[in-house]
């Protein structure tokens, strides 16, 4: 069995998940506005990605938040940033072939994927040592015309994500993609 399909031990402390607002409250909208505004102030990609996953995990109360880069030449997603309630350090640099998993499907199809019962989906994969999530939401990151990567959030609970969560993540991913495009353009 390939390493990315192996689920040996739980990496989540299930008692730590924080209940999140289930609809767009004024507080939820304020967190979205603040996060999108802050994204535009970064001058380098690495601290930008760390900020985004920290904000999604802490301010939005997502259990795990990750950013994957799409290496089109090798046809893999590369984990660049992750924050979450895990008993193990994030597997930064983890490679996931795009032929499998929800992150891979998001990259293949270029569309948002909201899966509220991952155990019912045979394409779910996780890094070695990671326990299966209950729900997952993957949003493509577009840097102008280039599919740059995926913004991914997970929950230990099933049915954890709403359409409002999807809209919020699409909004953040759009701002993230614009900022990444600007930063990459400045480096050229």
Walkthrough of the structure:
- With 188 residues, the chain is of the alpha+beta class.
- It has one domain (3-12, 24-187): GAF domain (Beta-Lactamase, 2-Layer Sandwich), CATH 3.30.450.
- Helices cover 33% and strands 22% of the residues.
- The chain has four helices and six strands, in the order ααβββαβββα.
- Strand 1 (64-71) and strand 2 (76-84) form a beta hairpin.
- Helix 2 packs antiparallel against helix 4 (163-187).
- The radius of gyration is 15 Å and the shape is globular.
- Mean pLDDT is 83; it is low at 1-22.
Please outline the helices and strands.
Blueprint lengths: L25 H14 L5 H14 L5 E8 L4 E9 L10 E3 L3 H9 L3 E3 L19 E9 L2 E10 L7 H25 L1
Antiparallel strand pairs: 1-2, 1-6, 2-3, 4-5, 5-6
Helix pairs in contact: 1-4, 2-4
What is the rounded distance between the termini?
Answer: 41 Å
State the helical fraction.
25-40%
Percent of sequence in beta strands? 15-25%
Number of helices: 4
Global Rg = 15 Å
User: How many structural domains in the coordinates?
Assistant: 1
CATH architecture: 2-Layer Sandwich
Q: Could you say what the CATH topology is called? A: Beta-Lactamase
Give me the count of strands: 6
Instruction: Tell me the strand order in the biggest sheet.
Output: 3-2-1-6-5-4
CATH class: Alpha Beta
């Amino acid at each position: 069995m390939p390493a990315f399909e192996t689920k040996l031990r739980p990496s989540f402390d299930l008692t730590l998940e924080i209940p999140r607002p289930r609809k767009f409250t004024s507080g939820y909208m304020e967190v979205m506005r603040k996060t999108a505004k802050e994204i535009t102030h970064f001058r380098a990609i690495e601290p930008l990605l760390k900020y985004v996953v920290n904000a999604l995990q802490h301010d939005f109360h997502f259990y795990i938040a990750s950013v994957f880069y799409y290496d089109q030449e090798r046809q893999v997603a590369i984990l660049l940033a992750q924050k979450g309630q895990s008993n193990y350090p994030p597997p930064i640099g983890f490679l996931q072939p795009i032929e499998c998993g929800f992150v891979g499907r998001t990259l293949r199809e270029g569309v948002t994927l909201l899966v509220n019962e991952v155990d019912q989906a045979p394409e779910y994969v996780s890094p070695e040592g990671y326990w299966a999530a209950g729900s997952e939401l993957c949003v493509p990151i577009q840097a102008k015309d280039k599919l740059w990567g995926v913004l991914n959030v997970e929950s230990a609970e099933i049915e954890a994500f709403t359409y409002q969560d999807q809209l919020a993540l699409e909004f953040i991913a759009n701002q993230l993609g614009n900022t990444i495009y600007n930063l990459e353009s400045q480096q050229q």
